[in-house]
Amino acid sequence: MSDQMKKAPYVVPIGPIHPALKEPVQFLFDVEGEVVKKADFAPGQTHRGIEWMGMRRNPVQIIHMTDRICGICGVTHSFAFARAVEQIVDIEVPPHAEYIRVIIAEFERIQSHLLWAGVAAHELGFDTLFYLAWRVREEAMDVIEYITGNRVNYGLIQVGGVRRDITPEQHPTIQKCLDGYRDLLGKMLNLFLHDTTISIRCKDCGLLSFEQALNLCTVGPTARASGVMKDVRFDYPYSAYGDLDITPILPSAYGGEINGDVYDRIVVRLLEVAQSIEIIETCLKEMPDGPILWEPKLPKLLSACKKAHGEAVGRHEAPRGECLHYVAMDGHDAPAMWKVKASSYSNLHAWIPMLEGEQLADVPIIVASIDPCLSCTDRVAVIRGTKRDLLTKEDLHRLSVEKTRRIQGC
Amino acid sequence: MNETILTPEELVDRLRTTFGDVVTDPRIVTRAEGAKKNPNTNVWMTITRDSLKPVIRHLMEITYPHLSVISGWDVGEELRMQYIFSIYFGNHHGEYMVIFTVPLAKNDLNIPTISDLIPGALFTEREKQEMFGVKVTDIPDGRRLFLPEDFPEGVYPLRKDETGVPDSMIKHLWQVKRPTDRPAPPVTEKEENSPSKEVKSDE
């Protein structure tokens, strides 16, 4: 035992993490030299007990809490929760409101994927691309603000509909933003997918096979990049998605083979931005007229909720994959049970097969590749035998940038 | 893997003929949404704890299911575990959800692990152990998932009986006063309420 202690593998914990994150994680790596032999992680560093809080509040209060579960998926959780409650109370959402929900959900996908693209570029040390991605993301943020009044925490969804309308006068501004993105997309695809450095760093890196993606119950772009055809919008067309023609985007859509590596995850996300542009345009064109709420008077809505008994599952395809809310109501103000399953909940365990066998310098980009919001990796301790060094997030980032430089030979 | 696609009705029939009385209270819930009213289906059924693994194994023979999450519900006299699956994904408008409810008596909170069948279930099984106090037998990794290491033993946050979160652990926001060990705020109370405060325009 003592002999083994002196030799490799060394244990490298990464985290705990930035408290602002939805799903904070601490990593523990066994490394031999630069290679990760074994990976483990512990989430829950800032579990807030939102479900516990929700079980003491009524559905209209919870809707405003679900807005705040995640800073980036501002509409995802409200959408899934509202759909669950609507099924229990048997509320028919006006079609006009369904289209508005889909429009804002797709804008959220655009801004989330661009945010992710910027983070990925930054992790590789390609900061000009990071600035470009985040600058163009602002256009989507501006339109979200234009529609909902807020950049984050939109407060748009209400049980039985939406709280703000999209009027025909607003269409030109939204259309202008979409046109801007369409013009830009070719440039983004070229910059990300035809750049030698990005290809070298991301191809065959962080592999997740089809079987692993299926067995580990992964969702969203993480699953699709490994070839699993899974998209709630396509498989189970809820809300206005049933009226639209959507096909899940696999990496093969860009002509290549499906490898399930980091590069494929970039392909899927960038092509999904193009898909979201199409969806929003179709929705703007085909949006039926009508009211935006099933019941605008909140006391009436709440009394209907209070009478309801039953359980239901509400799902939504978030930017990161399937988001699921299980709600049970038993004739009280507050739901009897509420379970939130965020998309990253299903994707986190895919880290282990992705990280094992990779180099320490590849950890930032692989961790980022499932889009968990990477700023979590805020400090690292390296244990070599009995000696313990602390690496900060910056040190780890520096390792990654140095690897890119080495590859480029500069 | 069998390629014939079973309708929700056929699935319920097949599970009832294979497993008999252990499958009870099957409900097929359909909901139509959108302007074109596309119907989507959820299948709910109650099964016993002993039949959980055989039923899931049988479902896996039909098609590989996606386990979204295992949820729980403390209804007072018993604890219900909900295994939320979706099957036939990858087919346009072909997916439906299958939700197995497994009731557990409060004096015997044990349930077999399904992580040997579906490795991705481990995560949510770990969460059920800490949140509901259910013992998942043969779980390969029984550590806590979300709760901190110093969280007291025997307290299960999502239970509604005496093992739930006690009042002594709850901190109400309205009771929390300004901390006394911090520097003074940059603006004093008097200035804050001053009527002469100018409203600055954003322009």
Compact description:
The complex is a heterodimer of chains A (410) and B (203). Chain A is built from 17 helices and ten strands.
Write structural notes for this entry.
- The complex is a heterodimer of chains A (410) and B (203).
- Chain A is globular and about 65 Å long.
- In chain A, strands 3-2-1-9-10 form a 5-stranded antiparallel beta sheet.
- Chain A has 410 residues and is of the alpha+beta class.
- Chain A contains 17 helices and 10 strands.
- Chain B has 203 residues and is an alpha/beta fold.
- Chain B has a single domain, classed as 2-Layer Sandwich (Beta Polymerase, domain 2), CATH 3.30.460.
- Chain B is built from 4 helices and 7 strands; from the N terminus they run αββαββββαβα.
- In chain B, strand 6 (110-112), helix 3 (121-132) and strand 7 form a beta-alpha-beta unit.
- Mean pLDDT of chain B is 86; it is low at 199-203.
- At the A-B interface, helix 5, helix 11, strand 6, strand 7 and strand 8 of A face strand 1, strand 2, strand 3, strand 4 and strand 5 of B.
Task: List its traits.
heterodimer; A: 410 residues; alpha+beta; Enolase-like, domain 1; Cytochrome-c3 Hydrogenase, chain B; 2 domains; five-stranded antiparallel sheet; three-stranded antiparallel sheet; 48% helix; B: 203 residues; alpha/beta; Beta Polymerase, domain 2; five-stranded mixed sheet; two-stranded parallel sheet; 4 helices; 19% helix; disordered C terminus
Number of domains of chain B: 1
CATH secondary-structure class of chain B: Alpha Beta
Name the helicity range of chain A.
40-55%
Give me the number of helical elements of chain B: 4
Shape of chain A: globular
Order of helices and strands of chain B: HEEHEEEEHEH
Instruction: Please mark out the parts of chain B with pLDDT under 50 across 5 or more consecutive residues, or reply none.
Output: 199-203
Number of helices of chain A: 17
> Describe the biggest sheet of chain B?
5 strands, mixed
* Order of strands across the main sheet of chain A: 3-2-1-9-10
Q: Classify the beta-strand content of chain B into a percent band.
A: 25-35%
Distance linking N and C termini of chain B: 65 Å
Structure class of chain A: alpha+beta
